[in-house]
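Re-run with default settings, no changes from the original entry. Doing this only to confirm the output is reproducible before filing.
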Amino acid sequence: MQFSFTSEQEELRSVLRRFLERECPMNRVRAAMAGDPAGDGIWPRAAGELGLAALAVPEDYDGAGAGFVELAVVVEEWGRALAPGPLLATAVAVPAALLASGDSAACARLLPGLAAAELTATVALNATGQPPAVTAAQRGDGWVLSGQASLVLDGLADVVLVPAATDGALRWFELRADDLTRVAVPTIDQTRQLANLDFADTPAVAIEAAEPQAVLARTVNVLITALAVEQVGIAARCLELTLDYVRTRQQFGRPIGGFQVIQHRCAEMLLRLESARSAAYYAAWTVDGAPADLPRAASLAKSYCSEATAFITAETLQLHGGIGFTWEHDAHLYFKRAKGDEMLFGSPAAHRELLGALVGI
């Protein structure tokens, strides 16, 4: 196991951070929150010019064939900037599901378009990470889906992969978003896009997965690992904002960072951040390096990183004093993302319970 980043991974981080600092300042994030077209161009440029959409796609399907740790570096920087766009769905979840299915025809049909940033895609999982209440039935030579999926991550994407029930078993399907009804759902975190999907005899194409349940488990574990890494990026940026503030904010004739109580709180934030980073990147390493350990590592990372990031973002608000609670300051945007991520695809308590079951407790 490699305990440090390679020079190529560090260069990837550096290039992406410079790009996001230039192309995705917080005023563009706020524009995207408000539905302003000025905030919509970040993902297409990052996916196309920097090749982010192609990272997890094998070279056989016109991708970069990078490992998951490289993808994790991208996800961390994306979270640090609160950048809008379907990174987690299009570049993480969908390639994971398609490759795990083993359906070469489906991979050839979709992955080159994703790698070229010509398509966006998502997996229709509910906010709990469970399959939606959708059933599939044969209609002539094809399939139709009926039911609903709630709070689907990046549910307004071009293509949707759906795990649906048929004849008492799970099966995977692909459909184009124009064939179903989708409604964006407003949430406390306006930087994250969620949508409800309605299926009413919606035509779909079957994905021939040999073990559909294994595809589901792999997809969810990869997704929650990426979410944990994103939380590390959020927490790291909040610590930076806090340290900058306490070094310059004057009280009683000196910077408030000079007071021991403030130093102790910042030290606790750093401790939790570094612990979260270790948990998240260990899980990221297991995706390719030790797949059998991924379920345990993913639940551990999601549980710890969720609580650590919630703590760090809350401390950021507190240590900024009154200004941290204002709409004009960025701290509340990170806090809201952290609270949303804490519950997305399973709460910390749910993942601790799952982890206990996995290790036999």
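DSSP finds eleven helices and nine strands in the chain. Residues 214-358 form a domain with the Butyryl-CoA Dehydrogenase, subunit A; domain 3 fold (CATH 1.20.140.10).
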